[in-house]
Amino acid sequence: VRMNITHERISILGLGAMGRALAGALLEAGREVTVWNRTPGKAGDLVARGAREASSVEEAIKAGDLTVVCLLDDSSVRETLAPVAPKLDGRTLVDLTSGSVRQARELAGWLKGYGVRFLSGGIMAVPPTVGTEGAFILYSGARDLFDRVAPVLSPMARPHWVGEDPGFAALYDMAALSGMYGIAAGADHAVAMVHAEGGDVETFKREVLGLWLEQMLPFMVVGAEASETVLEDSNPGMQATGLETMLAASEEAGVPAELVGHLRASLWRMRHAATVA
Ligand code: FVH
């Protein structure tokens, strides 16, 4: 039994922007870190900060009590782990590579077959925010494993367990990404309207859009299921009409509004439900 579990040695597979940020945060916190990357030459700065560079995946995994994988996608994880998988019995692996629910579940099943203790993760941070307040990482898999691993990896970002099902971290990660891309697409559309009508885009972004989104974000999240977006002071009828007004303004500006257009049907449904209730 280790007296201080944060002394577990950590290996990181993948030194893209995210892998380097994760390794950097762990080194900053005094962790013992070994790194590996498919293409050599990316470890220089980390080695200067105290990391050890392994020359093969196997060497990296053997050097750590636990291995964090952060590669491009699920197929790069499979490709990297397949040659060493038969030697992973009893090892602990945490995969923070983005993937789908099915990919996470299948990877967990595949690794279980080799006797690997496995957690799947979803990083709710970007490289510059790794290690800062607000950054968090979703983990799913066995709770006891999470309890062991969380304090070791906490310098990367606040660890948050979302369930035993290995697919849940990916599920919440992908769903949250969709929320983010939706807002990004909405912001693009907003700016396109301002641009098309001759407005000052920089002023609009600085003095209007950011402040407005900040103010509305909590309402958007709470009311995310369209059928529940009934704000007491913003009734569905008014919202449905407001959306039509915005869509008309967008059409006038000659800017396609497919993204927000899909909200039309649900708002009119809500308006109908509110009138018959
Ligand atoms: N960076 C971000 O903003 C996001 C934030 C949220 C989470 N994502 C996910 O993190 C994974 C890694 O992202 P990244 O930013 O590190 O990505 P890259 O800088 O493009 O580095 C990719 C690394 O993957 C290696 N790699 C690619 N294919 C293979 C392969 N077939 N076998 C082995 N390694 C592979 C690549 O190696 P190399 O090209 O340098 O040899 C990099 O180490 C990702 O899932 C994001 O969705 C980041």
Automatic annotation (TrEMBL):
Keywords: Oxidoreductase. Residues 10-158 form the 6-phosphogluconate dehydrogenase NADP-binding domain. Its EC number is 1.1.-.-. One of its GO terms (molecular function) is oxidoreductase activity. Residues 165-271 form the NADPH-dependent reductive aminase-like C-terminal domain. PANTHER family: CYTOKINE-LIKE NUCLEAR FACTOR N-PAC, OXIDOREDUCTASE GLYR1-RELATED. This is NAD(P)-dependent oxidoreductase. It comes from Nonomuraea purpurea.
